[in-house]
Amino acid sequence: LLPILSAYSARFDLTDQSLNTPVHLAARLNQGKSIKFMIQRGGTMKTKNADNQLPIKIAKIFKNKNA
């Protein structure tokens, strides 16, 4: 799905109402390959959400080692 979204110029740096990016959500769901894909296409690990959490913090909270 990510390659299709990317082909249509999807932005991986946008946030939702809680300021989560797609990278935050992928970190929560232990989607390491998806995170790498998004970072290569404009996503970032440096954006904090409304709870002041980086994606790496989300991964640690959910004990996701692949994220």
Automatic annotation (TrEMBL):
Entry keyword set: ANK repeat
Protein name (database record): Ankyrin repeat domain-containing protein
Keyword Secreted on entry: no
Tree of life domain: Eukaryota
UniProt keyword Ribosomal protein, yes or no: no
Repeat positions for ANK: 18-50
Gene source species: Rotaria magnacalcarata
InterPro entries assigned: Ankyrin_rpt (IPR002110), Ankyrin_rpt-contain_sf (IPR036770)
